[in-house]
Write a structure and sequence with these properties.
With 107 residues, this protein is of the alpha+beta class. It has a domain of 71 residues: Ribosomal Protein L30, Chain: A, CATH 3.30.1390.10. The chain is built from 3 helices and 5 strands, in the order E-E-E-H-H-E-H-E. A hairpin with a 2-residue loop joins strand 1 and strand 2. Helix 1 runs antiparallel to helix 3. The termini are far apart.
Length: 107
């Protein structure tokens, strides 16, 4: 096919290749200052060690960091266990829920 005979599909309109296509300025807003968060809630069934070990497994942190998160959950009823992109939040939430911990993802 010759170049001048080719067709270009742009914005649901077919244009000849030798016609100018309009420029499209599109603003895509990405909120990087407020990533998604995994909230971990307190319960009466799990021991501190169970929660600490699962937090370590979920967010790949050291014992001290997991202990801080666990104490915050215990003292305040909930805590941010992780913040980041949505795929990361889904992964962390799934690992925490492996032992039936209650989580929620917030945007």
């Amino acid at each position: 096919m010759k170049e001048d005979e080719s067709k270009i599909l742009n914005n649901n309109t077919i244009h000849s290749a030798n016609q100018e296509t309009p420029e499209v300025d599109e603003l895509v807003e990405v909120d990087v200052a407020n990533p998604a968060k995994v909230i971990l809630f307190d319960d009466e069934w799990h021991t501190f060690d169970e929660v600490i070990n699962q937090v370590i497994k979920a967010i790949n942190c050291d014992y001290h960091k997991a202990q801080q998160i666990t104490w915050q959950v215990h003292n305040h009823g909930k805590a941010v266990a992780y913040s980041g992109d949505m795929p990361g939040c889904l992964r962390v939430s799934a690992v925490l829920e492996e032992i039936a911990l209650h989580t929620e993802i917030e945007m």
